[in-house]
Amino acid sequence: MLLLNHHRFLHLSRTILLCFFAAAGPPARAQVGSGQLRGHIELKNLVYDNSRIVSKEISAIYQKNAAPAPPVYEPLNFVIYLDEISLVSPVVATAKPAARPRFVMDQKGLTFVPHVLPILAGSTVEFPNSDPVYHSVFSFSKTRTFDLGRYPTGRSKAITFNQPGLVKVYCDMHSQMNAFILVLANPYFTLSDENGNYTLRDIPAGAYKVKAWFARLPEKTATVTIRSGETTTLDFVFQ
Amino acid sequence: MKTYSYFIPLFAAMILLPPRAASQPAIAVGGMMTANFISGGDAESSLRYNNGWPGFELVGDLFMTARISDELSAFVEVETWRGWELRIYNAALTYKISGARLQIEAGKFVAPFGNFLPRRFAPQNFVYSYPLYNDYRTGLTVNNTPGSNAALLDGRGKLHVGDGLAVIARNAYITGFQFFGQLGAVGYHLGLANGALSNPTNISENKRPMLFGRLHVQPAISLKLGVSFANGGYLNSALLKNTQPDLQPEKYGQTLAGVDVEYSRGYFVFYGEGIFSRWKSPSIREDLETLAFSAEMRYKILPRLFLAARYGRMNFSEIADSQSRAPWEFPVWRLEPAIGYHLSRHALLKAAWQINRTDRPAGDPADNLVAIQMTLFY
Hints:
The complex is a heterodimer of chains A (239) and B (378).
Chain A: H1 6-24, E1 34-43, H2 54-62, E2 78-83, H3 89-94, E3 102-104, E4 106-108, E5 111-113, E6 116-120, E7 123-128, E8 135-139, E9 146-151, E10 156-161, E11 165-171, E12 178-184, E13 189-191, E14 197-204, E15 206-214, E16 217-226, E17 231-233, E18 236-238
Parallel strand pairs in A: 1-17, 1-18, 3-7, 6-12
Antiparallel strand pairs in A: 1-14, 2-13, 2-15, 4-5, 7-10, 8-9, 8-11, 11-12, 15-16
Chain B: H1 4-20, E1 27-40, E2 55-67, E3 72-81, E4 85-98, E5 102-110, H2 132-135, H3 149-154, E6 173-183, E7 186-193, E8 210-220, E9 223-233, E10 253-265, E11 268-279, E12 288-300, E13 305-316, E14 318-320, E15 325-327, E16 332-344, E17 347-358, E18 369-377
Antiparallel strand pairs in B: 1-2, 1-18, 2-3, 3-4, 4-5, 5-6, 6-7, 7-8, 8-9, 9-10, 10-11, 11-12, 12-13, 13-16, 14-15, 16-17, 17-18
């Protein structure tokens, strides 16, 4: 458990990340020539975040601090990643803990920030509590089951995610809080911007399966060929 | 109301309504189904379960909150008890007079007393049972007053199911109104309702409304402290009109005062409560007082697995016997260790062993329980 304030921690995380990728160097296949993939993702209909457990919020209602929340739609966070390649995870797995990539999932305003966090397998995620109330972060996901217990404002606890897969994160004290950590086997992933646009750079030339992930909807898969020095376009539509 | 015609639509609603919440933005719906298997001793005791016969129970709860406007909201809770009997536990409107600082709630709502009632539901209750002060039924009843000290003392340690009064009724939902709010770290409740906490009633059964209140403060993030009080009439006078027309039901009152504490850190949570209750029954020369304690803790040993235990004790004041003085009920205590396992975020399995001890001359009755509880919640 680290006792760092949030801003110091973010700075440290970025520094460690930069050091890590500088030390590890580009993936081996990038040396044979690389291209980039870009595209747009469209969501036809908003998806309701039905993960809140109203019955667990009953206690809060009885305490008279809560009112029925407005509808919450899933934020437009799409993760685009290359599937079925694992280039860097062995490097990460053998790295010393201090050299592993570190990320931050903050607890602020009774939400997890960010709501969706794609990370490389072997990375560590810090969960600082920036709220004036207790939080208790947990996950029952098969990828990584953990429970950090209750900890106060200004404290942070960390979890390392070694196995690729999806981790659904919740707070045991605030059932409306939920987030996703997508643990990926290679560094070729990105998060779309607020307009649904994405770009994946420095992909070694070759044919790949590309996946687009969105919470609470089935994943989309497409096949693409990346050519050296070229930009390939690939769009996805979620119904 | 004992008809399956309520059972079927309730559970159909529990299954069908949550997804529809998306198209009804101001309404949130939740539900819970709890299945219990209980096996216990068959001794004559207020804590005996089902005459000592092991059995299954199915309880369903449906919750609905509706935000009518920024200021006005409604909350309804419906429960099927043991699978067939439909009960509306909570149906109240809340209006924000001045934000969170001052609000008013009117209708039927849970009594703001102590720290257990808000977490009575199976997912938040670490063990199987309710605290002893909710479960132990005394010889005082809502529709029959004890004729004398001797009559009350004769009933000690016997089976007081049905109308026997617990210090706080198992389902302490009161009908009335309350002002409440949060001022910084301090929260408050003050209101009027029907009946008493030992006998909350939907309509006024006697001429004595209940006054109740609560103050709670959170001096540190890990610590919550509270004090509560209530005073009301506990007699169902309507049931007595034929047999005792001269009775003055307003003289049969219950006064309650309580303190509570909650402390948590890491994987550990502790709840403690102390409650003083005083019933007045004019045919009994002395006040009938009870002092009840409850201490409860939970420790998560693995992400899905926790250990918990609750200890409760009740002591009763002495009243005059024919030759000496004796407590009007025998002292009783309960220890309930439990283990819980989260099958998923929506499913909790618990097993509990309830050890009940009554300090009576005839010896401790065989009224221990073993309970297995499975809860699914949305």
